[in-house]
């Protein structure tokens, strides 16, 4: 057990905790917007740490064996991470806007600023 | 199996993906199901990257990249359909 192994275990633990929190938040929150909030943020953060664990593992194997396959593994994992980081918040925003425009209002909401803005624009 | 810790992490991530799938099946409204599908896609990308490290195959990670981009396009298409076409 080297120090790198402990770093990988720590990253994997953060990944598991946040991904499971994101999945549970789908069942614990009352409406679409809060579910989107919990699920998107938690799973994005958890996936960052999953990819970081893979990158640390691949860099350590590259250091040990010198096989260029591991360099490829680290770089492609980073590309997957960048694709996810760019697309995930954009998709969540699109879902929230579409849900509001198609008539699903936030549960228990007191102030709905987007609704006011839409009404103001229509009048 | 080269690295069992990555394999078990992928198994637990897939349990989370099953919970998201449960939301897709149960979800009372259509946006709830779309949120479930979006979470499911993110978790599947995470699990596929972890499995790529576990089985020592880089091709799994390439598939994860393509899956992330295609699921993004799918989510945007469903969102546009939901809000009633292009504005």
Automatic annotation (TrEMBL), chain A:
GO terms for molecular function: sodium:proton antiporter activity. Coiled coil: none annotated. The chain crosses the membrane at residues 6-26, 38-58, 70-87. This is Cation:proton antiporter. It holds the Pfam family PhaG_MnhG_YufB. Keywords: Membrane, Transmembrane, Transmembrane helix. It comes from Thermococcus camini.
From TrEMBL, chain B:
It holds the Pfam family MrpF_PhaF. It is a multi-pass membrane protein. This is Cation:proton antiporter. One of its GO terms (cellular component) is plasma membrane. One of its GO terms (molecular function) is sodium:proton antiporter activity. It comes from the Archaea. Keywords: Cell membrane, Membrane, Transmembrane, Transmembrane helix, Transport. InterPro entries: MrpF/PhaF-like. The chain crosses the membrane at residues 6-26, 33-53, 59-82. It is found in: Cell membrane.
